[in-house]
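Dig into what follows:
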Amino acid sequence: MAPAGTASDTLDRPHFIGIGGAGMSGVAKVLAMRGARVSGSDTKDSPIVGALRELGATVHIGHSAENLAADATSVVVSSAIRDDNLELVTARERGIPVVHRSDALAALMDGSRPIAVAGTHGKTTTTSMLAVSLRTLGLDPSYVIGGDLDAPGSSALHGDGEIFVAEADESDRSFHKYAPEVAIILNVELDHHANYASMDEIYESYQTFVGRVRSGGALVISADHPGARELTARVGGRDGLRVLTYGEDAGADVRVLAIEPHGLTSEVTVRLAESLGGAELTFTVSVPGRHYALNAVAALTAGAALDVPAAELAPALASYTGVKRRLQLKGVAAGVQVIDSYAHHPTEIAADLEAIRGGAGEGRVLVVFQPHLFSRTQELGTEMGQALALADASVVLDIYPAREDPVPGVTSALIIDAAARHGADVTAEHDRNAVPELIAGMAKPGDLVLTMGAGDVTDLGPEILARLQSPEN
């Protein structure tokens, strides 16, 4: 079997298996911008693949042993790549170092001032807010985000500044590889049931992550979230670690005094502790919902930890207008707004439904929900159904398996039954292709349709819009 690979000395000519994925493409893009000769493969062509090709990457469609160049210095994989993948098997047979995506990202962060963003929810949004606002201030950070900001391939950038902002993925413990100067922890909940059996395992994993913060660095953590407060108690008092809390709690270092919704934006007022300057600031967050406002406050606190003036960073946060799949408006047809959401955990589902309610006005919120993973549905199906009761009506699709094999007895019925028990208007739909027609029959002018889930439900947005625009509607 090939050695695990030391990322820093094997990334001159890397080959990425699954290069078009959200996390993999970002690392590949930064490497290409730094002069590496990048190659890779994916199961299908996409705008992200096109953006990588424009940077000089060689991308093959389909997985084959022949895709692996003779002079490849490493093969980069994520946890989603199975051991029997033909290219991975070939790399092992040829003795090519196999490097996990997290090791490659850790190598990219060497020599910078890294901010690593962790938490069960909100990582992509908070990372994006930091990347956009720091660029607005002219600090030219590097960043790797788990979603595109505006155009395909915009999930990552090599900047000339000293700050590097990246998501820190707890799902497979790969965030243990990073050594950030500032670690952000937004919340701590039980998820990723294939890898964690209990909350104690979750806390232990986050404690390991916090233990990787550089001496003299900072932990930015929610003062409101119960799991985050428990983690703070477990890691408090470590020498060389500055702990900065944010939230509505009276004792928070960056205390939220008010969040005032204004349609699809919010106005946020915070007061900084004396150790951070003691100022009171009011700024705009250009996306809806309290959870996004709190993400912005986390970003503001992290900037302050790196001595970015809060009075400058706060207004710059308004320049963040969203990331693809995070309450992204796909279009309007026949008076109906169609919005896409990546939410797949019950907390995320509830938060996005509450956030979007203001944008619907007097109209109804109609949801097309696709559960993600059998393991997650098995553990949290009841809570998902309860969250969907916040919508006026929901259509629930079959489970999107991603990397998992089916689990006997685990189907979308777990969610549908729970939603019905909580008074929801919920419909099962096993034929994905029937959804546009179904929604066109349900939606009325003024309604808002939310496609929701981490799988390919996102592709239904344009199809629903096309059906709404058709003459027979």
Summary: The first helix runs from residue 22 to 33.
